[in-house]
Amino acid sequence: MNPERMRAVADAIEESGRFHYSAWAGRLNQDDAVYGYVSTSRELREYGTLRKCGTTGCIAGWAATLAFEDAEHLYGKRSNVMISDVAQKYLGLNDREAFHLFHGEAMVTVGFYETGGDALMKGTAIEAAKVLRMVADGEVVL
After folding, report:
1. Which end of the chain is more exposed for a tag (fewer CB within 10 A), N or C?
2. Which residue has the higher pLDDT, 73 or 44?
């Protein structure tokens, strides 16, 4: 795991205030509902990443955005892989850790929600940033 990158993702989520656990990445309509779901690295690059206004994403979507900004070489400009794969590699997670973090289970572990499903539906940018920092600081083990 890469604690520095975990903190960078936490900062990006917190600074934007835009977080939606049920979408790797997507656009927001005027009611803050997600549409235009994006799930692959090619789509995210074409989309312009999550730094654009009117967008939202989950921890994996934000990690992939930072990966493309910091190290396009992770998968190359022509490859097309799942956003979760880009994020997992960028954050240095194994499969179990990635699942735990990307599917809301880490929010259950810290006590924010009773189930991963609750976290996926209700998780906030502040909670996501806090969980990432707790993982980075070793307070939570994925």
Report:
1. N
2. 44
Asked if the structure places residue 77 within a domain, the reply is yes
Query: Both tokens of residue 115?
Result: 């189930």
CA distance 83 to 110: 25
Cβ-count burial 45-84 (b if 16+ within 10 Å, e if not): bebebbeeeebbbbbbbbbbbbbbeeeeebbeeeeeeebb
Identity (one letter) of the amino acid at 49?
T
The domain total for the chain is 1
Would you state the structure tokens that stand for residue 2, as one six-digit string?
Answer: 């890469």
Beta bridge partners of 9: none
Q: Is residue 114 part of a domain?
A: yes
pLDDT computed for residue 71 by the predictor: 61
For 13, counting Cβ atoms within 10 Å of its Cβ (0-12 exposed, 13-18 middle, 19+ buried), the class is: buried
pLDDT of residue 74 exceeding 70, the answer is no
Q: Does residue 110 lie in a domain region?
A: yes
